[in-house]
Design a protein that fits this description.
There is one protein chain. The chain is an alpha/beta fold. The protein contains four helices and 17 strands. It has a single domain, classed as Hexapeptide repeat proteins (UDP N-Acetylglucosamine Acyltransferase, domain 1). Helices cover 24% and strands 25% of the residues. The strands form four sheets. A six-stranded mixed β-sheet has the order 3-6-11-14-16-17. Helix 2 runs antiparallel to helix 3. This is Acyltransferase. Keywords: Acyltransferase, Transferase. It comes from Oceanobacillus halophilus. GO terms for molecular function: acyltransferase activity.
């Protein structure tokens, strides 16, 4: 179950009223920073931009691939642990604007997590340490530590214990 807080709105859909819920200037600044970071080839520069201007919590040696899009309105609700990889063109959302309400939720990505390309992470989810999210996955619920998940809707392919069993059976390099 995703952990989001709901905020009802009246007089039209919530996205139509977006600047009543978040400052235009915050969104404008975040847009510029995210566009710069999406195309920056230097991981340390991306992390500095995200930490400094978007107030995201990002662990050491975490790598955001080309074209990653963190939440443009509430990036400060995103935490990524150390030594993780966020794959090409992944979107990390901390908000949802719906017809009669909008929802906000923290996104917590653990240490040594691998997120495959073109994945979408919805607000209010946690991804445990050393989890693997396969490419093209819609992460709509929590991912247990050490698990391999994939698909749309996301399903657990292997649990941590099953992954450990598989690794014991495979020949060492």
């Amino acid at each position: 179950m995703r952990r989001t807080k709901r905020y009802p709105v009246k007089n039209g859909n919530s996205l139509w009223q977006v600047y009543r819920t978040v400052s235009f200037w915050k969104v404008f600044k975040n847009t510029i920073i995210i566009l710069i970071a999406r195309f920056t080839p230097f991981m340390s520069v991306k992390n500095w931009l995200y930490r400094t201007f978007l107030k995201m919590e990002i662990g050491e040696q975490t790598a955001f691939a080309f074209m990653v899009v963190p939440d443009i309105m509430y990036p400060e609700k995103i935490t990524v642990g150390k030594n993780s990889i966020i794959g090409y063109n992944t979107t990390i959302l901390a908000h949802e604007y719906l017809i009669e309400e909008y929802r906000l939720g923290d996104v917590k990505i653990g240490d040594e997590v691998m997120i495959g390309a073109n994945s979408t992470i919805l607000p209010g989810v946690s991804i445990g340490n050393r989890a693997i999210v396969s490419a093209g996955t819609l992460v709509h619920k929590d991912v247990p530590a050490g698990a391999l998940v994939g698909g749309n809707p996301m399903q657990i392919i292997y649990t941590k214990e099953e992954m450990e069993q598989r690794n014991k059976k495979s020949p060492s390099n």
